[in-house]
Amino acid sequence: MLSVPIHQAKGQLSELIRAAEQGEQVVLTRHGKPVVRLVAEVAGVDDTERERISAQALADLRAFRAAWSGGDAP
Fold it and tell me: Is pLDDT at 59 greater than 70 in this prediction?
């Protein structure tokens, strides 16, 4: 996993996007805390599958936020 501060990512966005396209996990951080994850777009996925993937990603994010804050996140 590649973790990059947002202020640093501004100057290397093209490289970070290429890394995500190649399957690298790229996480942008602010003050050392994960804020954004760059992921490659999944080609050839229908809307139903895309919605399932999105719902799972949202559930994962909520679980991460809850674990990070030490409690239940909305």
Answer: yes
Give the CA distances from residue 48 to residues 45, 52, 60, in Å, rounded to whole numbers and listed in that order.
8, 6, 18
Mean pLDDT across the chain: 87
* Percentages (nearest 5) of helix, strand, coil residues in the chain: 55, 20, 25
pLDDT value, residue 44: 72
Which amino acid makes up residue 32?
A: G
Among 44, 40, 42, 37, smallest CA distance to 60 is for 37
- How far apart CA 59 and CA 36 sit, in angstroms, is 15
